């Protein structure tokens, strides 16, 4: 999984969250509705989307009681850690022994969740980040697609229903899915780019598409779905037409 370094427009991410249909797990767009499943997340990011699930919600006290004495030491080591402290630990830890390599893997799993797969507005490790690191055997074969999607749905639910201002979860994955499926809609399988989809989106290509999407959003102030580029072009053409033509078109649409 390669994530190009770039700043993502927050307005676009909010529109994606606004147009995510809770209960159906569908993204409503001007190109149609796209079903979002663990497999879709897996195809987009190149992570596994089959196998055993991670715990959906684990409270600190509940998690702590379930741990062995050795795991409780690990738990206390990471409890309350920030993203910066994890970064520092990854840079400092050695990998000469099996024990050190295992600890490095744990730190990396925590880091990639906090920084990308399961980001939160609170810059501290949460129980949902900690739960996976205590069962490291076959961790890459666990259902990461479902793990990411479950957390994203919770974040969007808090945003839509509880009016939380910030949105937890990997909205970047939702953006890649939207860009890929809309760009390749109607194409035959042989014509579509290979998986993972994120590998086909360079920084330059992402910036170009995000710029186009931002312009379209500005044309639709009260839109109920993300507009398509074709709709955007039509709106531009209407704005460039003479006033008389615009007035007659408005009258026809009002009838």
Describe the structure.
This protein is mostly helical and 255 residues long. It has one domain. It is built from twelve helices and three strands; from the N terminus they run αβββααααααααααα. Strands 1-2-3 form a three-stranded antiparallel β-sheet. β1 and β2 form a beta hairpin. α2 crosses α9 and α10 packs across α11. The chain is globular, with a radius of gyration of 22 Å. The C terminus is likely disordered. It comes from Arachis hypogaea. This is Aminotransferase-like plant mobile domain-containing protein.
Helical run tally: 12
Helix/strand/pairing class, anyone? mainly alpha
In total, the number of strands is 3
Mean pLDDT: 83
Q: Order of strands in the sheet with the most strands? A: 1-2-3
Helix proportion range: 40-55%
Q: How do the helices and strands follow one another from N- to C-terminus?
A: HEEEHHHHHHHHHHH
Assess the beta-strand content as a share of residues.
under 5%
Distance between the termini: 52 Å
The low-confidence runs, each spanning 5 or more residues with pLDDT under 50, are 233-239, 241-255
What is the alpha-carbon Rg in Å? 22 Å
Largest sheet: 3 strands, antiparallel
Bulk shape: globular
Question: Could you say how many structural domains there are in total?
Answer: 1
